[in-house]
Write a structure and sequence with these properties.
Layout (H helix, E strand, L loop, with lengths): L8 H24 L5 H23 L10 H24 L2 H8 L2 H12 L7 H19 L8 H23 L7 H19 L12 H28 L2 H6 L3 H13 L6 H17 L3
Helix pairs in contact: 1-9, 1-11, 2-3, 2-8, 2-9, 3-7, 3-8, 4-7, 4-11, 5-7, 6-12, 8-9, 11-12
């Protein structure tokens, strides 16, 4: 298996921009949740993203083909994708953007531990171990802050399970024949598989709509086009170039941005422990990415 590159300046800039996009997306999901129920919203997003990806592939002249050996794994990644976002969307329906984001973006730690055992060139060095410890201490501190009454144990747990799902998708991308499939095809399988599944199970979670307004539809369009349809295409491409744990570690920036967006846009109360947690997370990023 080919060893991937360490993060360079171009990669760092692209990953920082993607982290900013994902952080804002948490706010968009929260706002859109006032118009559409969580699982139904996730299904509509995947359906819209599937159309965007297909249009983009047609415009670029990219054929919709995949190695036969990779197809079962691509379907599996689509199932995990559906599970991951079922958990995340419900988590955001129960708790604040700041809390859900900090917990969800603990994913690099779980990926780093798995990569240490199973992926070549992904060993945990001393500085990276310290970085993981600092970042997880920040996550734990944020979870322990329940002083403002906005905490939800269900939301916390679902965000954590969603983080496990995200790490699982990355491992599938690197450890199975899925690695031979073009990144855009991996994304296409994920949204095509998850869309009908999410829409089919959405009624099991109660109401589908909650007085949808134009702003909620605009939020869905943003998620489908800007985040999944285009943003994930870039992210999958970066995953094909750089080391998995290095790419994943930049996701620790997303909760930092998400806390700020939640405070500025949604008026969420952010106590001192959360700000300290974010400082720990930022320090962890520096150490995780040391060569």
């Amino acid at each position: 298996m080919e060893e991937k590159r360490a993060i360079d300046t171009v990669g760092a800039a692209a990953l920082t921009g993607f982290a900013l996009l994902l952080a804002f997306n948490q706010v968009v999901i929260k706002i859109s949740g006032d118009g559409f129920a969580p699982v139904f919203q996730a299904g509509l997003r995947s359906a819209g993203a599937a159309m965007v990806v297909l249009i983009w592939m047609r415009a670029r002249g990219i054929a919709v083909t995949a190695p036969r050996a990779a197809i079962p794994w691509a379907v599996a990644s689509g199932l995990v994708f559906a599970f991951e976002f079922t958990c995340l969307y419900i988590a955001l329906d129960h708790t604040t953007v700041a809390r859900a984001s900090i917990i969800f973006y603990s994913m690099p730690v779980w990926l780093g531990l798995a990569a240490h055992m199973w992926l070549p060139g992904e060993r945990i060095t001393g500085p990276r171990a310290v970085g993981m410890a600092l970042s997880m201490a920040g996550v734990a501190l944020a979870m322990a802050d329940r002083s403002n009454g906005q905490a939800s144990l269900l939301g916390d747990l679902l965000a954590l399970v969603a983080a496990f799902g995200w790490a699982g998708i990355i491992l599938l991308m690197r450890m199975t024949p899925l690695a031979t499939m073009a990144p855009v095809m991996q994304l296409l399988f994920q949204v095509v598989v998850s869309a009908p599944l999410l829409l089919a199970v959405a009624p099991l979670f109660g109401e589908l709509s909650r007085d949808p307004q134009p702003i909620h539809s605009a939020g869905l369009a943003f998620q489908a086009v800007c985040v999944v349809g285009l943003g994930y295409i870039v992210w999958f491409h970066l995953m094909s170039i750089y080391r998995a744990s290095g790419v994943a570690s930049f996701s620790f920036l997303s909760p930092v941005f998400a806390v700020v967006f939640g405070w500025m846009i949604l008026g969420e109360h952010i106590g001192p422990p959360v700000w300290i947690a974010l400082a720990l997370v930022a320090a962890g990023i520096v150490l995780i990415n040391r060569k």
